[in-house]
Amino acid sequence: MDTAAVEVTDLVKSYGSTTAVAGLSFTAPRGAVTALLGPNGAGKTSTIEICEGFRQADSGTVRVLGLDPITDARALKPRVGVMLQAGGVPTGARAGEWLRLMAAFHADPLPPQELMERLGLVSVARTPFRRLSGGQQQRLSLAAAVIGRPELVFLDEPTAGLDPQARMATWELVTELRTAGVGVVLTTHYMEEAERLADRVVIIDHGRVVADGGTDELTGADQELRFRAAPGIDSASLLSALPAGCRVEEFPGGHYVVTCADPQALGPGLLATVTTWCAAQGILPEDLRVQRRSLEDVFLELTGRDLRES
Amino acid sequence: MIDPASRTSSVSFAPAPGAAPLPRMVLAQAGMELRVLLRNGEQLLLTMVIPVLLLVGFSMTSLIDIGGGSRVDFLAPGVIALAVMSTAFTGQAIGTGFERRYGVLKRLGATPLSRFGLLGAKTLAVLAVQVVQITLLSAVALTLGWSPRGGLTGALACALVILLATAAFSSLALLMAGTLRAEATLAAANLVYVVLLGLGGVVFPIDRYPDAVRPFLEALPITALADGLRSVLTEGAGLPLAPLLVLAVWAVAGSLLASRLFRWE
């Protein structure tokens, strides 16, 4: 049990002349949530599908629960749950019968009825897959991924296209899986999702890992002070009021961010300085708050601001 | 959409993985395949409605010249052959093509059910539908005055011909579904159904075609199946060796090609 849930080393995968994965390495611990975070086309799905045994790597090694996803497929399949990005269910199959079929493939499955209750699928148990809403289809696929009581689940964009309520339900389920000791590897391009769910975040761009660590490690201890005011306030004047080593940045829409090289500088004193300066200028700073750098900031810094696609 | 009370239910996700025994997996999958097949209206049109209409329509009218003898005695084996083909080839090619397109085969590939198990389940579902078809068509034909010959040994000979034909048609269906796009499979499989319905001695006697094309027609799996059934049921012959040989060649060639060329995605 001392091997990692997933261990990927120097993974390379090309399709024709397109390199999808270009020497990617990461480790996902057991019983923890690992998020592969990146813009569309970063190589997340290729990576997860190689881990699932659907695709063969061009080079590099992949170990899932210490085993090879292709040569040890027979031993791995009962132990690993899979949720594809889309589809995977016959259009004419009813939600309930599909889940019962998935249960029949396992020795000691979760009771399908209880799982459907848990995921709010009871009312559509007799509805064919093609008539389910996008969110219901996603939840059915999620249910099918966990029904065999796996040790590890791979979820490829589990909340893409879900409404906020359904997304919250999925997050709760993932958290519960983790509490029960199930390892979760998921892909997402929602920063918030990675930040909320993951113990470990692997940021991928252009088929490479650009950052890898716990969410705390990635966002660091750096704090920043943010507020909103009319665009075009006199930043230079504000800066002159602040201690040395601080910076003031203005973003579109009148968003202002104050950061300091010395973490100690960003304290109650700085907050007082900023509000005093604002008062003197007759400016009301709205949404004023001191916060840690968000994963979104890290993500955008690493992958470039022009790469956001969703 | 989500009942808030449901969130408190006590499903335990503690890992307890393990595969079910193979027979249970295969039976469960076969049951799913069968239910999806029987619920699909277009499939039922091909597998049940058209064969019954052909049988009734051509038995009760003289629209086609079968060259003497009882009309229903000639037509029943041909229509049964068509029904067998419609399920093993047309229905299976279209169904599997769309399963591949919608990622169903891929998803099943991530379950403990092996490819061998999936093939077994598909075969069981096809055979189950054929039992329903043959029962239905036989009942209709008997009502129309069909008097099949051959007795029990004849029935066994027919079962052998049908099993071998099912193997041949299934391998060709999977070859098509596993290599072409789903839409192309849909079009091609329906075209093949119509063409073979016309050429394969199903309702039009094959001796009406020019001598030059007859060897080609006789090499078709549908002709071998229809001729094989007709020689036993209509003429009271023993085991139809030539049709069995033709079907065996198709089954072996189709299986070899399908196992080489089939792509799961």
TrEMBL record, chain A:
Keywords: Antibiotic resistance, ATP-binding, Cell membrane, Membrane, Nucleotide-binding, Translocase, Transport. SMART domains: AAA. One of its GO terms (cellular component) is plasma membrane. It is found in: Cell membrane. GO terms for molecular function: ATP binding; ATP hydrolysis activity. It comes from the Bacteria. Its main location: membrane. GO terms for biological process: response to antibiotic. It is a peripheral membrane protein. This is ABC-2 type transport system ATP-binding protein. The lineage of its organism: Bacteria, Bacillati, Actinomycetota, Actinomycetes, Streptosporangiales.
Automatic annotation (TrEMBL), chain B:
It is found in: Cell membrane; Membrane. Residues 42-265 form the ABC transmembrane type-2 domain. GO terms for molecular function: ABC-type transporter activity. Belongs to the ABC-2 integral membrane protein family. It is a multi-pass membrane protein. Keywords: Antibiotic resistance, Cell membrane, Membrane, Transmembrane, Transmembrane helix, Transport. One of its GO terms (cellular component) is ATP-binding cassette (ABC) transporter complex. One of its GO terms (biological process) is response to antibiotic. InterPro entries: ABC2_TM, ABC2_TM_bact-type, ABC_2_transport, Nod_factor_ABC_transporter. Coiled coil: none annotated. This is Transport permease protein. The chain crosses the membrane at residues 44-64, 76-98, 119-146, 152-175, 187-206, 241-262.
